[in-house]
Each structure stands twice: as structure tokens, then as C-alpha cells.
Recover the amino acids of this structure.
């Protein structure tokens, strides 16, 4: 079983409503699907959803890296030789984790199909029977965020995540408005996406919302300033989650050494796929840091990969597998029941990817073969 070809599809997925975070506004989501095929006729799907603000990768650069560097590097390899494949990808290009994640996910999909096992069984077996999915609110004015949060709770969501990170004064109003709208019993998470930049601004906000009972505050300072993150953690009783600040092993070591975070947001697009994500989970568990599997707002393909990881690990206590719920059209269907996500027993990622939809949504296609 050897990889014989890699097909690349650059697509844009339409969002139901704009997705607004501290550093950008998305009106649709540019992403890249890959279809890795083997010489015995099997295939697996993977996905790269790059974010230039987080990993430095653009949609265009990721297509180029996949076409000219990564796809040629893995031709002739077995998808089961995942460590060797990552070694070859690292030798082909430095960084570019989203591009590498696409290959990695496709290989796991292939491994599952070839062994007739769902991917979670390749990662340790299903630990969580289902996943509670939060409702994520974009940055809006406080009243609009409060209304949306209240509507989400009425619709059955049991956890709310609020995006903030613009004007600290308004962010205080946003956090308070959302908490008041959903009551004291509904868990609330807050994500600044680096928007408060430094320790002083972060603490200005956090001191004034300490009574809002947040599950955690996510990435309150700039990603590269692990020292500031550690200072915030020491100065607040609100649990601190690191997201953009950890891509891989190097940053994880620094976070552990500086005791900079209580929790870690693992994103396949930041770390390079499922295989390197497993290392992060193990390191975090060793250090007493709980994990969440996050998302760059991905299609069903990468969302399924993240869901398999989240289902398989005890130390992954939360997820944001919300991408498919935010699109008006996707390339496959996942089993959401209310605010919970269920994975079945189908092999691989467990998806029936709509090839016709992929081709229709694609604005660029390329196939690299032996």
C-alpha cells in the first residue's frame, strides 16, 4: 500500500453569518482539501485551513507548498509510516503546519479505512462517547452578543464562548452582558485572541470581570509573549488557556517551564496534524494541563479529525468542533444532535465526502502523481 497521488482542491466555504475575531472578519472560509490515493485503489481526505495571523500561512501559499513540496515528498510512502512521512515533510519545508496537517489527516483516514477501524481507535480508542459543542459568538456590540447568547441557550446549547479582544472597556461590557443574558448556571468561556496584547491590558479587563464565573480566559496576550501569559496566570484566579502561543513542542516546553497556562488549545492546523497533536496531549497531561481541541472553522473533514482526537483522550476536556455548524454548505455531513456531536463506527474519519460538491466549490485543482 503506497501513496500514488495527491489531489489538491482549493475551495471557499460559505458562512451563514460573518465570523468576527479580534484580528479579522471572515465572510467565507478559504480552505484546502487533499485526496491522497494509494496504488491499491484506496483514498483518504485531509484538510488545511491556514490562518496567516496564526501560522503565517495563506490560502495561496499553502496550495503552493502542498503542490510543489509536500505532495512530491510523500509519493511512494505507506500512509501507515506516519512518523517517516512527518520526517519527510519536515525535510521538505520548515513550518507550514496547516499544509502538513492536510497530509497527516488524509493518512489517518487511509489508515482507518485500510484497517477497517475508526480513527479514534488508532489514537487510543473512544474515551468520550459524545462531544459537547459550545456556541461561539463573534465580536459584536454587547447587546447583540447578549441576545445571541440567550438565543443559543434557548436553542439547547449548554456552553457559550464569547469572542472579545478589541477595546478593553467595551470587552468588559461584552463579558458582563453575555453573563447576565445566560444566567449564572451556564458555563461561559472568553477568548481574546491576543487582542489585549500585554499583561497590563489583560489584567485591566480581568480584574473587572472576576465575578463573571468564566471557565477560562483564552490567549489574553500576544502569542509570542509566554512570560506575559505566565504573569497573567499568577495575577488572576481565572484559569488561563494558551492557544496561539503554542504551535508545537518548542512552545509547549516553554509554557510548562514557565507555568504559563492552566489549559491548552490544540489545533491541528497549528501543530501539523493528529500525530504531533498526540505529543502535545501527552506533554500537557504530564504537566497537569488540561486540553481542548480547537478549530480554525474547518469543514467536516478537519472537524472530524479533531473530533476523533477529542473523543480518544481523557485529558481533552473540551472542544470547538463548530465549523460545519457555521457553514451554509459543506463537503460532508456530521452527526450533530442538538449541542452534541457523535462519531459512529465507520472506518477512517467516518465521512462520505461529496466529490461533486468539492469539485463545484473548488476554485483551483491540481493532482500530483507518481
Amino acid at each position: 500500500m503506497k501513496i500514488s497521488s495527491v489531489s489538491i482542491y482549493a475551495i471557499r466555504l460559505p458562512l451563514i453569518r460573518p465570523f468576527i475575531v479580534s484580528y479579522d472578519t471572515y465572510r467565507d472560509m478559504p480552505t484546502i482539501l487533499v485526496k491522497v490515493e494509494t496504488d491499491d485503489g484506496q483514498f483518504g481526505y485531509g484538510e488545511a485551513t491556514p490562518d496567516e495571523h496564526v501560522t503565517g500561512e495563506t490560502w495561496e501559499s499553502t496550495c503552493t507548498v502542498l503542490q510543489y513540496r509536500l505532495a512530491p515528498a510523500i509519493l511512494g510512502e505507506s500512509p501507515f509510516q506516519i512518523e517517516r512521512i512527518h520526517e519527510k515533510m519536515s525535510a521538505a519545508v520548515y513550518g507550514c503546519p496547516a499544509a502538513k496537517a492536510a497530509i497527516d489527516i488524509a493518512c489517518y483516514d487511509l489508515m482507518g479505512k485500510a484497517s477497517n477501524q475508526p480513527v479514534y481507535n488508532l489514537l487510543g480508542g473512544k474515551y468520550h462517547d459524545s462531544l459537547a459543542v459550545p456556541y461561539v459568538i463573534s465580536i459584536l456590540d454587547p447587546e447583540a452578543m447578549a441576545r445571541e447568547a440567550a438565543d443559543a441557550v434557548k436553542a439547547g446549547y449548554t456552553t457559550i464562548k464569547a469572542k472579545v479582544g478589541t477595546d478593553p472597556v467595551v470587552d468588559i461590557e461584552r463579558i458582563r452582558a453575555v453573563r447576565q443574558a445566560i444566567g449564572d448556571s451556564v458555563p461561559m468561556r472568553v477568548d481574546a485572541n491576543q487582542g489585549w496584547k500585554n499583561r497590563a491590558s489583560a489584567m485591566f479587563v480581568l480584574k473587572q470581570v472576576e465575578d463573571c464565573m468564566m471557565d477560562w480566559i483564552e490567549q489574553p496576550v500576544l502569542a509570542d509573549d509566554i512570560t506575559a501569559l505566565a504573569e497573567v496566570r499568577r495575577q488572576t484566579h481565572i484559569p488561563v488557556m494558551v492557544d496561539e502561543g503554542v504551535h508545537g513542542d518548542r512552545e509547549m516546553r516553554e509554557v510548562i517551564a514557565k507555568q504559563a497556562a492552566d489549559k491548552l488549545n490544540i489545533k491541528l492546523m497549528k501543530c501539523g496534524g493528529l500525530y504531533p497533536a498526540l505529543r502535545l496531549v501527552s506533554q500537557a497531561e504530564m504537566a497537569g494541563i488540561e486540553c481542548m481541541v480547537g478549530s480554525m472553522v474547518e469543514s467536516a473533514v478537519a472537524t472530524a479529525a479533531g473530533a476523533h482526537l477529542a473523543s480518544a483522550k481523557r485529558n481533552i476536556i473540551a472542544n470547538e468542533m463548530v465549523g460545519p455548524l457555521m457553514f451554509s454548505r459543506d463537503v460532508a455531513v456530521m452527526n450533530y444532535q442538538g449541542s452534541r456531536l457523535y462519531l459512529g463506527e465507520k472506518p477512517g474519519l467516518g465521512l462520505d465526502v461529496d466529490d461533486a460538491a468539492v469539485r463545484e466549490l473548488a476554485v483551483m485543482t491540481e493532482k500530483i502523481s507518481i
In short: The mean pLDDT is 97. The longest helix spans residues 97-115. The two ends are 14 Å apart (CA to CA). The CA atoms of residues 238 and 313 lie 24 Å apart.
